[in-house]
Design a protein that fits this description.
Oligomer: single chain
Strand content: 15-25%
Structural class: alpha/beta
CATH topology of the largest domain: FAD/NAD(P)-binding domain
Shape: globular
Number of helices: 11
Radius of gyration: 24 Å
CATH architecture of the largest domain: 3-Layer(bba) Sandwich
Largest sheet: 7 strands, mixed
Number of strands: 22
Helix content: 25-40%
Distance between the termini: 67 Å
CATH class of the largest domain: Alpha Beta
CATH superfamily of the largest domain: FAD/NAD(P)-binding domain
């Protein structure tokens, strides 16, 4: 008999924790996972899944309008926020049930309670119960960063935005990253007056400059207002429930809601890590090696709490690699090169590999190919909105080292193209592929 209660104890039942638990159990390990909120984590409960459903809902605003150009006699339509909100939350409930069922089917013990680290191989539950495990895996994800300023308690984060009682007529969104730009597009299509305020002067830092400039241009054309170099001074709640927002260097603004989308921090504080000697960086991220092992040999971490690449599929890969390495006899290391990403803005962005600036800094000599065009659907609909595809090529080897796209269905197209970039294919390989016509994706093999 083992000297431990479990072979593996996982704290956090999000994407990474669920995958690690399920795979480790399938390899024969005795596994328990503790989750203090809901099984599924950020992505399923309050992140990419409900957000993408809101994105789908928002697209109908333009689709219904454009349908008239395609011969459909569409009457004026009214958007009903509570209907979409409640349907989305019901889908979240359904998915949570499936995640729980998956864990049950793999004989994983699910403890719906808070757990903290009480020792290198010991955890403590909220009721004081202590359990031992040969290995502990931290998969607690991230948490919205809330800047400190007077009245910040009157704002909401991406955790609460899915539960709004009413659709705000005026919403101020703080931040310049993907969360801010995605929700800006969503609420703008729903009919809210949207203002993005950013402490800096750049949106979507890390994405290719031409692509993010195109999103800024299109967003402004759609009516989204941007205020740059605008740190918060305060938020005051008025008698009628509205908010007065004071920004440094700007006149006071009135809003019905303020959404703080200024990034996410590793959710590592207050769970006993530092007390047992787990090393954290200055942002609170757990420092791990390529095997996801922390400075304490029996404690491991995967997902956003390690702040490597904050993407759900990356957390899943890390959870799988951990379980296969330590319980499946298949040592696995996650490859972080050429990880594709998307921004579900209006229109969406897809990207993989190096930006033009990164490629010039690293490779020196590069070739850049672009296609700037109107999607066929937009032409007939009378929309001037233009898509932009950009390919970065290593001039010395002809290898495609980056693809960046903004336009309808860009993420759907980019996923397949990312395989080619990951495989190290060349510009000639793209050129030698026959175009699929008429499609937007064919632009990738017609770049000159």
């Amino acid at each position: 008999m083992s000297e431990f209660d479990y072979d593996l104890f996982v704290i956090g039942a999000g994407s990474g924790g669920v995958r690690a638990s399920r795979i480790a159990a399938s390899h024969g390990a005795r596994v328990a996972v503790a989750e203090e909120y809901r099984v599924g984590g950020t992505c399923v409960i309050r992140g990419c899944v409900p957000k993408k459903l809101l994105v789908y809902g928002a697209h109908f605003a333009e689709d219904i309008h454009d349908a008239r150009k395609f011969g459909w006699n569409v009457p004026d339509c009214k958007f009903d926020w509570p209907v979409l909100r409640d349907n989305v939350l019901a889908e979240v409930d359904r998915l949570e049930g499936l995640y729980g069922q998956t864990l049950d089917n793999h004989k994983v013990t699910v403890l719906r309670t808070r757990a903290t680290v009480a020792g290198p191989q010991k955890v403590r539950l909220a009721d004081g119960t202590e359990l031992t495990a040969e290995r502990i895996l931290i998969a607690t994800g991230g948490w919205p960063h809330v800047p400190e300023f007077p009245g910040s308690e009157h704002a909401i984060t991406s955790n609460e935005v899915f539960h709004l009682e009413t659709l705000p007529k005026r919403i101020i969104i703080a931040g310049g990253g993907y969360i801010a730009n995605e929700f800006a597009g969503i609420f703008n299509e729903f009919g809210s007056k949207v203002t993005i305020v950013n402490r800096g002067d750049t949106i979507l830092r890390g994405y290719d400059e031409q692509i993010r400039d195109r999103l800024l241009q299109i967003s402004m054309t759609k009516g989204i207002d941007f205020k740059f170099n605008a740190p918060f001074e305060s938020i005051e709640k008025n008698d009628d429930g509205s908010l007065t927002v004071m920004l440094e260097g700007y006149e006071p603004m009135q809003a019905d809601a303020v959404l703080l989308a200024a990034g996410r921090a590793p959710n590592s504080r207050g769970i006993g890590l530092e007390e047992v000697g787990v090393e954290l960086d200055d942002k609170g991220a757990i420092t791990v090696d390529e095997r996801n092992q922390s400075s304490v040999p029996s404690i491991f971490a995967v997902g956003d709490v390690t702040d490597r690449i904050q993407l759900t599929p990356v957390a899943i890969r890390e959870g799988q690699a951990f379980a296969d390495t330590f319980y499946g006899g298949k040592p696995t290391v996650v490859d972080y090169q050429n990880v594709p990403s998307a921004v579900f803005s209006h229109p969406p962005i897809g990207a993989v590999g190096m930006t033009e600036a990164e490629a010039r800094n690293k490779l020196g000599s590069v070739r850049v190919y672009t296609s700037d065009f109107r999607a066929m659907k937009n032409v007939l609909a009378g929309r001037n909105e233009r898509a932009l595809y950009k390919m970065i090529v290593n001039a010395a080897t002809d290898q495609v080292v980056g693809l960046h796209m903004i336009g309808p269905d860009a993420p759907e197209i980019l996923q397949a193209a990312a395989v080619a970039v990951k495989a190290g294919l060349t510009k000639a390989d793209f050129d030698n592929t026959v175009a699929l016509h008429p499609s937007m994706a064919e632009e990738l093999v017609l770049l000159k």
